[in-house]
Amino acid sequence: MPETFNLSWFFGFMCAMPSSLISEELVFATGDWRPYIFEESGDVVPETPGFSVEIVNKVFEKMGHSITYVSAPFARQIKMAEQGTVDALVGLYQDEAPSLVFPAEPIGTTQNCFFVKSDNSWKYEKIEDLSEIVLGTILGYTYGEIDTFIENKPENIFSLSGSETVMMERLVGLLDMGRVDTFVQDKLITEFFLSNFETNEKLENVGCLAKVPFYVGFSPKGQFSKEFAMEFDKILNEMRRSGELDEILAKYSVLDWER
């Protein structure tokens, strides 16, 4: 009797759920953000998509969904998600697109740091230090505590836009050409680039901002975005308890940000 009851309840529950939450191919926007997200030629790399993408893929696989990823410059990704052209955006801070629908659980944390050429004695200790230099940034990115300075001091800022896949190369190039004195970028991303790509420059980390969680953000136009966000939290916490999350992170030599 208990087995029959549970089975009947399950089928009743599934029938009551909207079909969009049961099985549907979803379209998510993202861009190259290694080691968080690996993208090449407009597609997420199947074998090593990055730990953030692997987390999202596993969560939605458990929901019964498959995901198609589209790549675009970051500012365009936000517009696509806001307008409902895509179902979600993978890899952003909540402040970068507050109109999106976010789960409570992040898919990692980042820490932006300042990098200079080895012969530069400048160091970052406080926001006022930025008035002494020209800073390289990426258009559309949020940097937290220095955002007000970036907005109010355009003469001190050199912002790049375009494909995420060459952004690190371009930032390093700005340093090499003397167009900027320093650039601000995530610590893991910069260290990954410097250890995997040839560059003539030896760069030094001269100060960091606070760690910030980043998320998958669902389109406010999506009919089931709130339900997706709540289910995402539930499944991710189950993966943390079961050890599945640690298995994904270990492939990229990353530790759970909650520990």
Strand-residue proportion: 15-25%
User: In the CATH hierarchy, what is the architecture of the largest domain at level 2?
Assistant: 3-Layer(aba) Sandwich
Terminal CA distance reads 43 Å
The major sheet is characterized as:
8 strands, mixed
How many extended strands?
10
Q: What name is given to the CATH topology of the largest domain? A: D-Maltodextrin-Binding Protein, domain 2
Helical content stands at 25-40%
Roughly what is the average pLDDT, rounded to an integer? Answer: 88
How many DSSP H or I helices?
A: 9
Instruction: Summarize the helix and strand pattern as letters.
Output: HHEEEHEHEEEHEHEHEHH
Shape: globular
Organism: Parasedimentitalea maritima
Pfam families: SBP_bac_3
Keywords: Signal
InterPro entries: Solute-binding_3/MltF_N
Write structural notes for this entry:
The chain has 259 residues and is of the alpha/beta class. Helix content is 36%, strand content 23%. It has 2 domains: 24-108 and 212-250, Periplasmic binding protein-like II (D-Maltodextrin-Binding Protein, domain 2, 3-Layer(aba) Sandwich); 110-211, D-Maltodextrin-Binding Protein, domain 2 (3-Layer(aba) Sandwich). Residues 1-20 have low confidence and may be disordered. It holds the Pfam family SBP_bac_3. Keywords: Signal. InterPro entries: Solute-binding_3/MltF_N. Residues 30-252 form the Solute-binding protein family 3/N-terminal domain.
Notable characteristics:
alpha/beta; D-Maltodextrin-Binding Protein, domain 2; 2 domains; eight-stranded mixed beta sheet; two-stranded antiparallel ribbon; globular; disordered N terminus; Transporter substrate-binding domain-containing protein
